[in-house]
Amino acid sequence: MSEQAIVFGNYDNLVGILNRPRRPAGPDFAVILLTPGMVHNAGPFRLHVQLARALAEGGLASLRFDLSGIGESLAVGASGSSLERAADEVSQAVDWLKQAHGIQRVALCGLCSGADDAIFSALQDRRVVGVFAIDGCGYRTPRYYRQRLISHYLPKLLNPKKWRSVVSRWWRGPEQRPGALQLGTDVREFPERATAERQLGSLLDRGVQLHFHYTGGIGEYYNYAEQFSDMFPTLVNRSGLTTSFQPASDHVALLCEHRRELVDLACLTLRGMAQDLASPEATMLPMLPSSGWTVEPTICAH
Amino acid sequence: MSAASVVGASPQLSSVLSQFESLVQERPDALAVVFEQRELTFAQLDTLANQFAHALRQNDVQPGQHVGLCLDRCPEAIAAMWAIFKVGAAFVPLDPEYPRDRILYMIEDAEISVILTHQRAENSLARTLDSSPGLRWIDSASDSFSRFDTQWPFPVTVQPTDVAYVMYTSGSTGRPKGVEIEHQALATYCQADMQVYRLQPADRTLQFSTLNFDIAIEEIFPPLLAGSCVVVRPSDRAEHANELSAIIERYNVTAVHLATAYWHEWVDLMLATQASVPASLRLVIATGEKVSVEHYRRWLSLCGHDVLWCNAYGPTEATVSATVFIPDEHYAGDNMPIGEPLPGYEAFILDDQHRPVPSGETGQLWLAGDALARGYLNRPDLTEQAFANVRLPDTQCTRRMYATGDLARWLPEGVIEFAGRIDHQIKLGSYRIEPGEIEAVIHRHHGVCESLVTYDAVAGQKYLIAYVATGDHPTTIEQLSEFLRAELPNYMVPSRYVLMKSFPKTINGKIDRAGLPGPAESCTPRSDNYQAPRSELETYLADLWQTVLNVPRVGIEDDFFELGGSSLLVTRVVAELTKKLGVELPVRDFFANPTVVSSARHLAELTGQPVLDQAEVATAARLSRARQPRLQPGFITQGDRQLFHVHYAPPETGQFESDTDRLAVLMCHSLGHEYTRAYRNLQQLALMLARRGHHVLRFDYSGTGNSSGDCADGRLESLQSDTRKAAEHLLGCSGAMRYAVVGIRLGATVAATTPFEQPPERCVLWDPVVDGQAFLNTLWQLHDYALSSQTRFARVIQDSEPNQVFGHATSPEQLSSLAKLQLPQDLSPASLLLTSAGYTDEETGFRVSAGSRQRSVADEIYWHRQEFTESAFSSPDAFREIQDFLDHPGDRNGVSCTDVPFHA
Questions:
Q1: First to last CA, chain B
Q2: Does residue A150 sit at the B interface (CB-CB below 8 Å)?
Q3: Residue A84 contacts by C-beta under 8 Å, 6 or more apart in sequence?
Q4: Best of A33, A38, A73, A252 to mutate (most B CBs within 10 Å, chain B)
Q5: Which residue from B607, B590, B868 is spatially nearest to A186, judged by alpha carbons?
Q6: Residues B1-20, buried b or exposed e (16+ Cβ, 10 A)?
Q7: Helix or strand holding residue A214 (H, E)
Q8: Coil, strand, or helix at residue A193?
Q9: Mean pLDDT, to the nearest integer, of B216-233?
Q10: Is pLDDT above 90 for B327?
């Protein structure tokens, strides 16, 4: 394994670290790790560093880099919306990979806003052949609300000190607040549910492999393993799509064991994507059946 | 129409203390105070007050004595007020954020020997007040209070004329003046407040103001005496743009008292976000400044239910509010009156001869009644000027009255309308400023002949202007601003200046105000690279940043983050932009466009205004990049480890000293989550210093950040050897002959203990860890809280793997090694010890040795508090101090220490 710090981009303003395996599993494939929110390229609690090194051990190259204005990458006032700018910079990263190392196909891996960027970038750049999205987009479903009531509100309702305020909040419905004002994080730029379903469908039509992983840290919009199929019923049984749910973990995998589970799952999935590219007819890994999507049994609590 | 309005006679009132104690007996289990997750009943509040009272007695506090109250908003603060009353003493609110001289003056003026405080303020103040060694501190958060009796068997009879508290306000002599409020005044006011605002036991009143304003008095005492509950503003308060609405909704608040400017902002924010007035609210009192009728109309449009809205007026010298106006929903006047006197108050509008002016004509507003202050502490001259015995109109009776200095007139409907200030006292937000106090400080600056401070307003936003006559002395506004910043609270530092050789004079020899240049000719302090805004949008953004960052001036190429901004402050800017421009800006858009010029361009694009074409954008981006430092990331080989680093070299376009002459800078991070919290601050500091010509190297210790290795393997020795290696690399890659180290937290302590081959010429120790074991203890506390609090995880985590602490793997060997770390007792004379607000450490007895320098800054970080473990923080003051120290290590005043204790 070797690591190389690089400066690249149209304005020499983007900073990243290329991690290359000693024995590459495939010559022209790499994983790009996208920054979540305002966290720099090492990832929360070094998640990206661990992931990059685990990928390298499995034979996959990776590039973790900071979007402009985040981490070490300098802001130069590039135009466009956040998602457009991120997609443009992902394309610059792929350009660099191609120019420097002949890599032409990439999978994107991102947490939180990094997941949103990954999907949007995949829609813009056909060189993206896979996405591993952690706590990506989500939409509340009827079952979500039932689950929320049972596991979140009910314990509080049984608490005499809380019942008045809980009932009051329940009647008022979800609190309205501008997303841009979330403290220290980012606007989650989720498209409309139907739009998201259509976009994901188009990626699957194109052969892009998608894995959506959710944690218990985003209980505000996702809280049961099968929610993805309820959110996107037309995507059920689509080839190339898998999901997993890790309810015990928080959003950034604070605990080492949760982080390790996440890294293992991501490596397995991304290696599966790479294998599929190398040999489309090859048998997929057990967690990635060729038809339909499944839930990773070692992590899902259901 | 009578010129005086006597709304209510002043009944003989029992003291607020006896009223409170009666309530404790009558309603022991009723809720008295709510603060975050804590709830105190009247009985529990009284118990806490009793225990504090015992502590005061143990510290020999006697009736009539003044006790300093240096606490943030919290239940302890409220209990402390009652405790001070119980021992017959009076409290004096002290703000630890005020400059040292100002606090010292208050302590000396009020002859304070005991201060009730909490650990954070004590550490901060004790370091500041080294010249007051006789002070005794009582930590309100100490567990030791539990040993005191919960009963108070030493009742003191409070006389109506006993002083309840002393509230300091701005004074015209350059010194603040202490307003003495007696118990009868407080009782009178409380009675009036409860009556007019119809307080009831079911109310939940928000305690929103800091304790140094009289608004806090009306937020605390009347609600409690009405048997209702006080909801103290939570300390973690930046998570919601509409913080006030969120608090009201969360705690079912029914009553709020707001400074008018804040109320205006709140209304605008609700309007911008299409939010409604929270349903629980039934009472809103705006006070402090003239209310905009337009905002009242907007308020009505946001109100879906009945809310008693009041416009209150009153100086501190009349306890809190003296008059109130309650408009109906059809109010259509052009101005919002200040109403009529509260029960127990009297109001008169008199001419210069103390004769009532006819209705509709303007005169000075005088106030009378039992709620008037005793006067100004130790200032009989000022008291005599402001409080006078005036004969009542058409009678032989006289009344003791207070001359408010405000102009007013009676309206035909029998209410009072405010008409401005008689003198030039200035109200900025909630602050009342005597220009003379600022002028007195300006006069202390070398070369100043005369000065005059006034204000101007643009779009309703007031700012101070200082006119300064300097003769032939070559004083600059940057020097003046810097000087005032060190001497005055931020809100009193003028943002604009006009320097003149001499002032124009009237025939009487007074300053001819009319002959002075207009505000448009004033200038603000500027940096060398200042570029003025060129458009309305750029001007708006620059002004907004200036306000949010509290910096003297912002140029269009200034970087928000290099000025010390953080993502927290970005949310404030975004809220303003949402309100003003109707755009919802993702926070990271701001990160990608951190200068005024790029942000303005981006906003124009989002709002559909004409923008540059792609070629022009690319050209602007290239120019922007050229002005920024050169980045050289890489890995340094250190044995079998690879240390990630970034070398920030000065921009090629800059004119700097040669590399060998310039001081290079090495930056040392902390570990764990503190690395993440401070990451952007050090990175932005590196960019700022590189722009100024320094070569800077930021690196990750092995096992941290992007460096190789596992974090569990890190030892003190490896941290030190990594630091040494990084310093060598910096000198090698930069060509510099000398260097400085900037270390934060553990990085500071490691740097201070590393045996360098070539020692750094200067060393900045930013909130250093004093004791390694204490640092680890804090990490364990944060870890345990994360697992057990059910805030991060849905359930309590009881079976997590061992050998990890708050996100990071560790090992017994690592813990043992780090536990040995100690900040050296004898810091290098070339060290700057920089401490932020909220900085505390377990260690005591550490002393800053002679020759080293110490500086406390107002940046709030709070390393030890679990609610901020993932919060970015702003550090504009620290950036300024570090920059000054690296550029001019010997020029700063007031930073050199002579063997003073670092911690109390």
A1: 61
A2: no
A3: A120
A4: A38
A5: B590
A6: eebbbbbbebeebebbbbbb
A7: strand A209-215
A8: helix
A9: 96
A10: yes
Tokens of A163: 């019942």
* 3-class DSSP assignment, residue B28: coil
Going from the N-terminus, what domains does chain A have, and what CATH number goes with each? Answer: 2-141+192-296 (3.40.50.1820), 142-172 (no CATH)
Residue with tokens 């059809």: B330
pLDDT at B466 (0 to 100):
92
- Long-range pairs of A253-256 with CB within 8 A, sequence gap ≥ 24: A253/A44, A253/A45, A253/A47, A253/A215, A254/A45, A254/B786, A254/B792, A254/B806, A254/B807, A255/B797, A255/B800, A255/B801, A255/B804, A255/B807, A256/B801, A256/B804, A256/B808, A256/B809
Q: How high is the mean pLDDT of chain A? A: 84
What is the three-class DSSP state of A295? strand
Chain B positions touching A49 (Cβ under 8 A) are: 705-706
- Phi-psi sector, B679: left (phi>0), alpha (psi -120 to 50), beta: alpha
What are the pLDDT digits (tens) for A155-194?
A: 666 766 556 665 666 666 554 433 333 344 445 778 999 9
Give the pLDDT band of residue B517 (cuts 50, 70, 90).
confident
Angle, alpha carbons B768-B866-B207 (nearest 5°): 110
Kindly calculate the radius of gyration of chain B based on its CA atoms and give it in whole angstroms. 29
Closest residue in A to B796 (Cα–Cα): A248
User: Is the CB of residue B705 less than 8 Å away from at least one CB of chain A?
Assistant: yes
Q: Which two tokens stand for residue B567?
A: 């993502």
Alpha carbons within 13 angstroms on the beta-carbon side of residue B485 total 18
The interface predicted TM-score of the complex, written ipTM, equals: 0.86
Alpha helices, H only, B582-671: 587-592, 596-606, 614-626
The set of residues, in sequence order, having a beta carbon less than 8 Å from that of B784 and lying 6+ positions away, is none
Q: Which two tokens stand for residue B269?
A: 């924010």
Q: Which of B574, B589, B801 sits opposite A257 (nearest CB)?
A: B801
Distance (Å) from the C-alpha of residue A279 to the closest C-alpha of chain B?
33
pLDDT at residue A138 tops 70? yes
Two tokens, residue B68: 């300093």
Contact B434, B171 (CB under 8 A): yes
Could you list the beta-strand ranges (E) of B289-374. 308-313, 323-325, 340-341, 345-350, 363-369
Q: Report residue A142 CA to chain centroid gap.
A: 24
* Cα torsion angle, A155, A159, A163, A169, sign: negative
Average pLDDT over residues B323-328: 94
**Which residue's structure tokens are 């025939």?**
B507
Q: Considering the entire predicted model, what is its pTM?
A: 0.57
Cα–chain-centroid distance for residue A38? 15
Closest-CA distance, A103 to chain B, in angstroms, reads 22
With H, G, I as helix, E, B as strand and everything else as coil, classify residue A207: coil
Residues B181-196 pLDDT 10s: 999 999 999 999 999 9
First to last CA, chain A: 37
Which chain B positions have a beta carbon within 8 Å of A12's beta carbon? 625, 631
Residues of chain A in contact with residue B687, where contact means CB-CB under 8 angstroms, are: 74
Farthest CA pair distance, chain B: 97
Give me the mean pLDDT over the B741-752 stretch.
96
Closest alpha carbon to B693 in B632, B742, B723, B734? B734
Q: How far is CA B368 from the centre of its chain?
A: 34
Interface touch B620/A72, C-beta < 8 Å: no
HSE-up (13 A, CA, CB side) for residue B355? 4
Cα angle B394, B395, B397 (rounded to 5 degrees) comes to 145
Is residue A95 within 8 angstroms of chain B, CB to CB? no
User: Is there a contact between B628 and A10 if contact means CB atoms under 8 Å apart?
Assistant: no
pLDDT given at position B523: 76
